[in-house]
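check these tokens.
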Amino acid sequence: MSKKVLMVDDSPTVVEAAYDELNEKGYEVEIAYNGMEALEMLELFIPDIIIMDIEMPKLKGYEAAEQIRKNPKLCKIPLIALTGVSPQTLGDKAKYFDAYLVKPFGFEEMIQLVDKLLNR
């Protein structure tokens, strides 16, 4: 059974490229373009892992991550932050994420991190 990934980023270019890479590696991928959309999607789709941009309109990635961590049904899902800044720059907001991909990142790096967090 394929593992499910929720890819959240406001950049269609990043989302489409990540979708293609993950799909090619056998992952089932759903897409959201902001934190609010991600939270709405999580009411219907429970992924095995979430890759989420930090800076997005409507609801920032760390704000969505905080809500995910407070939800008993979702709180154990590994969260990868996509960010243009270092984890240190995020300060106490960094605690919501299990791992970080600093932009620009390579898709091979992203796949390795997803595989590692899912023990594939």
